[in-house]
Amino acid sequence: MRRLGPNFTLGPIDLSIGARQIVCLVGHSGCGKSTLLRLIAGIERPDEGIVSLNGTELAGPDAFVEPERRNIGFVFQDYALFPHLTVQQNIEFGLRGRPRGEAQARVAMLLALTKLTAMADRYPHMLSGGEQQRAALARALAPEPSILLMDEPFSNLDRDLRERVRTDTIALLRATHTTAVIVTHEPEEALSIGDQIVLMRSGRIVQSGAGRDLHDRPADRYAAEFFSTFNRVPGVCRGGELHTALGTFPCPPALADGSQALAFIRPQAVCPSFDGLTGSVLSRSFRGEIEQFELDVEGLEAPLVMRTTQRLDPQGGTLSFRIDPQAVLVFPLDERG
Hints:
Blueprint: E1 2-3, E2 9-10, E3 22-26, H1 33-41, E4 51-53, E5 56-60, E6 63-64, E7 72-75, H2 87-92, H3 100-113, H4 129-141, E8 147-151, H5 159-175, E9 180-184, H6 187-193, E10 196-201, E11 204-209, H7 211-216, H8 221-227, E12 231-238, E13 241-244, E14 247-250, E15 260-265, E16 270-286, E17 291-296, E18 304-308, E19 318-323, E20 328-332
Parallel strand pairs: 3-9, 3-10, 7-8, 8-9
Antiparallel strand pairs: 1-2, 4-5, 5-6, 10-11, 12-13, 12-15, 13-14, 15-20, 16-17, 16-19, 17-18
Helix pairs in contact: 3-4, 4-5
Pfam families: ABC_tran
Organism: Mesorhizobium retamae
Family: Belongs to the ABC transporter superfamily.
């Protein structure tokens, strides 16, 4: 646990990270992701609890291991390369004390893996954003850390470069069998790269697990809305089903008869149909692979959003649709979202 002023406390948190796993800490700004990373690194001390690595206590009531003695690598958001050193010298920095031949071999291998061999003699200001990120990664990996921490490592890159660098980075982590913890606030980024996703909110872990589990089986409304967009349709639970203006959907067993709840329906779960419900088209937006429609449906206060890959030509300004019941989530109306 770490107390940061009168209004925010990180924890209690119970988190285990397996060897060679890539773990993504995700959540909105200010939820405690970076603070947790700094506690692991030793940049901050916990007020309560224990941080351990491979059975060795790094921080706790009886011990505190200084950051430089933890064998933990850290890639900062701004990369923090030494501006007066070349790429090769930056990578060599963490290998001081090793035999020269061994250090040179390690540097050469990392330059090759990060595709920076031709830029070994360049200084950081001579590199692009993606090249700086790869140089920072190579420097962090040089001493073969037990775990690598990365704080928003792709946030300074433009969209196209970001995706390419991210793919190359994950491939490198896999190739070097590196255990890594990566902080991001991008849901899609976390889902695409993490073996384990840890969703945080207000200093606590909301849900942890595989990306598919968090996306398809969110623990609560916050988890659901963090990873996806939904239509929220109110209803009443009766006989184990939620009765709404769009039909009935299974209710969780914990919801009692007569309780109010919300059906969370993803736009892609609203499917075109020849004999389903109907709605008047309020707007349509072509987005390349998909087209989005906003429909005015009787009984609903808000427009129903539908996204489809089909090329539709609404006749008379109306569309028929059905709801895929397997893609509907139900949460209590009074649950904090």
